[in-house]
Amino acid sequence: MSADAETAPETGAASRFDGLLNSERTSRAVALLGVLVLTWSYVSVLFYVTDVVGGRSRLIAVVVGSLLLATVVGSFVGLRTAVAVTGALLAGGFAVYVLALPQSQLQLLTPDRLLSDTVALLTGLSILRLTGAGVWAMAVAPGPVFLSWYLAVRRRYVGAVAVGGVALGLFVLTGDAGQVATLVGVTGGAVTVAAATLDRYGAGVAQLDVLTMVLAAMIVLSATVSVVPGAGAAPLLPNRGSPTVEGSLVDAQDRLNVVGSIRLSPQVRFTVDSPEPSYWQTAAYDRYTGDGWVRTGNANPYEGQLRGPPGASRTVQQQVTAEGSLSIVPAAWKPVGLQGPAAENAEVTTQGNLRPTVSLRPGESYRVTSEVPLHTTEQLRRSGTDYPDEIEERYLQLPDSTSDRVRERAAQVAGGEDNPYDKAAAVEEYLESEKRYSLSVPEPSGDIADSFLFEMDAGYCTYYATTMVAMLRAQDVPARLVTGYTTGQQVAEDEYVVRGLDAHAWVQVYFEDVGWVRFDPTPGGPRETAENARLAEARQNGQTGVDVESSEETATPTPTPTPTAETSDGGADGNSTPADSSAVAPGVVTTPGDGSIPGVGATTTADGGGSPIPDLPPRRTFLVGLVAAVGLVAGARRAGLTARAYRALWLRYGGGGQTPDDDAVRAYRRLEYLLEREHRPRRTGETPRTYLRSLSRVGLDDEAVRVGEAYERARYGDGVSRAEADEAVAVVDRLVRESTPVVGRLFR
């Protein structure tokens, strides 16, 4: 055997490993893997959509079928044909989507509406807001999946990345691709292009450690550093402390996220002149995502009188005056008319709420006319369940992630009732009595309703309302989450002062011939205690903006009076209805009227005091840490640290072989590596025996020479005994221990 073959095994393994990395086959495999990662990044958005609206298994089948089709035809179908197939897939999918829309939506599909909807999608309209979001997801999935994978199979990697990048870019524009999905997609595309480029120029993917280091640094920096103070895009790592919530609860435009601990704000938002108290509604949300809410459909310009509830109602006029900048139109349900500055640029959502496109300035006011539904408890109990198709489709939806135990608990609580009203009353009473009201709760993870029912002891309005809607929908009772404000502080016979601490979330349940009826499962007593303490604290500290003229005369906010069920002629039948019996308001945080954001970090608890809430790192933080670790490993490999670490471990812990001969050979190779490091390497053409004899002249241990002799017998002679092999291993182990602290210990 030649001397060159007698190298240490770790050197040969490293060479073989580098050769494998530099091979054409490996480069192609890495490029294909990058395309798959990029494909996953945008398909994951569609998976999330179909998980919310249903049909995820069908989407999986569509994606897998597209990948298989591209794999099969990639070897014999030309590029033009593949592009034509992609166009056919997109056109066919769009046709299926259009045919799946309700008749009421089809009538709106004018060319102008199609253009405006397309522009809306490209400027932030979430896919989840589409009426047929699940069908749309399956319609757009096969085209880009097929074409990008077809190009990858044909080794046109840059084209594959371009197609996948366009698909991912669309979902970035709609706001549905989160930072993690976007970063993963960019990483996959960059790896693909790099692997293809390195292979083209013969560098091999062994040089990908440089790219890995750069990408890891980009991801970690983008996740942890905010370049522009107060920028709208939040970093991946969560901001510790209690967030402000009124902006996301009341001012939320189309999507409402459920957060953790919150703070109460005593800032006055608006005043209301009204002949009777009410909850001042601002928005309703129909699509439950499991971790929040989405308001589907586009808003239409307000053009005058709106439809009232389907049954009897009474007219209530309200005058609302903004005390700060106001970007909402609070009103008693159901608003049918609007006059004043807000009417000039108002929109009407598909859920029946009004909202302005231009904020009201402080001091501006508007008049809103509401038709408040009239009903009795018995009328609600007699209400049927033959709901309109639109109501069933939109307000019985639950995400596929809804657990069986949520459905089982809903059946335990309300399954014994024989009508929607008693089911709603049972769920409302159950949540009021079983859960504590608290503003200090951990940031939720997973399905909100499931977490609140089985993992949490306490929560605030958003948790109560979300859970009640989920439980009712599990019982086939149409329900939705509503946001707005409770009555506020009554300062005169017909005047109410509404503050940020009155912001609230509650539930509306649909009844035939009546429409939407309010239920509120949040306990009222603890809420009032928190409100009173917070307002008293603000007044004591001399905080500005917490009172208007005459509001200081009332020491605490006036609780919402308990309504009674009303007959169709406006009288009361004397029976309290649980549907309207909860006088609660939330503990929700606001932003002040001047648009500034209160200090983030202090958590105001129900007693008005501040106490930080421990917050464990979420999954996104773990992912960023994992990316950083990968980058560090790549850097260590580039610097040779991993190879040196491996060799050091191999030298110190050589391990055992299956036979004495294997142990003797391994012992010599460790010895040779040690001698190379401590003295000199074996020269080309120099045999192991010559090498050891040359070192023995300068004081090499005789036992080390005997290790070489055992090696020769093991490789070229009759072999060695177990005792001889063990002796060789023991000698090398001793020499390694002696040489590690101080160079030169090997020699006498």
TrEMBL record:
Residues 553-568 have a biased composition (Low complexity). It comes from Halogeometricum salsisoli. The keyword Transmembrane applies. Keywords: Membrane, Transmembrane, Transmembrane helix. Residues 453-523 form the Transglutaminase-like domain. The keyword Transmembrane applies. This is TransglutaminaseTgpA domain-containing protein. It holds the Pfam family Transglut_core. It comes from the Archaea. Residues 539-613 are annotated as: Disordered. The chain crosses the membrane at residues 29-47, 59-77, 82-100, 120-150, 157-174, 180-198, 210-232. InterPro entries: Bact_TGase-like (IPR052901), Papain-like_cys_pep_sf (IPR038765), TgpA-like_C (IPR025403), Transglutaminase-like (IPR002931). Signal peptide: none annotated.
